[in-house]
Amino acid sequence: MRKCQVIGKRGTAKVKKIRYCCRNFKQGTKGVYRALKEEHSGLKQKKRDCLGHCKLCSKACFAVVGKSKKLISASTAEGLQKKLEKAIG
């Protein structure tokens, strides 16, 4: 297992955070959450009841990444996982 770290503006290593909407788990993000939890042990992942993106939540898989709260979405869970892994680095 590898640690997922990003070099911050000051050169310090920071672990990225990924936030998931529990209501979006029925779209397939639960599998993404579990896969990334196993694959990237140093990654902080949080589950929240609602992230406030209800229109997107009902149509696609999504997660919110980092302190900037960047929204990453895909039409499938596999697509979301690929995008998240790319964002992690």
From TrEMBL:
Pfam name, any one: DUF1450
Q: What is this protein called?
A: DUF1450 domain-containing protein
